[in-house]
């Protein structure tokens, strides 16, 4: 089963048709049988969307994501928190490292359009911009 974890930027691009990476996110999604979403990704999406749309739309988007049969929401664990706290080079890295740790723990590659994340932490786990 072809599976990958998504960083928040990939999920946001998939949701937002106006995002510059929307087509790329759809292409990646079409190649997967299962998407792993670390729980923090759902929280970040809700946080981003709350500034861009109304409560009912945010609710519908979140409920749609978590009800999909091809999506597995992965809870963040103490192990992930410890990994992020120890590994972060600055405060902005913390959530990204939670996501990276959850992907690594699940033994699936992490798809991210964040070049800085891939450059800084790509040695720790498979972080890819596409499935190719």
Summarize the structure.
By secondary structure, the protein is of the alpha/beta class. Helices cover 54% and strands 13% of the residues.
What are the main properties of this structure?
132 residues; 7 helices; alpha/beta; 5-stranded parallel beta sheet; Rossmann fold
Secondary structure: elements and pairs:
Layout: E1 3-6, H1 8-15, H2 22-30, E2 34-38, H3 39-50, H4 55-67, E3 71-74, H5 78-87, H6 94-105, E4 110-111, H7 115-121, E5 127-128
Parallel strand pairs: 1-2, 1-4, 2-3, 4-5
Structural account:
54% of the residues lie in helices and 13% in strands. It has 132 residues and is an alpha/beta fold. It has one domain (3-128): Rossmann fold, CATH 3.40.50. It has a five-stranded parallel beta sheet, sandwiched between helices. Helix 1 packs across helix 2 and helix 5 (78-87) crosses helix 6. The protein is globular and about 35 Å long. 30% of the residues are buried. The mean pLDDT is 92.
Inertia-based shape: globular
Gyration radius, in Å: 14 Å
Q: In the CATH scheme, what's the topology name?
A: Rossmann fold
Query: What CATH architecture do you see?
Result: 3-Layer(aba) Sandwich
Largest sheet: 5 strands, parallel
CATH homologous superfamily placement: 5'-nuclease
The number of strands is 5
Strand coverage percent: 5-15%
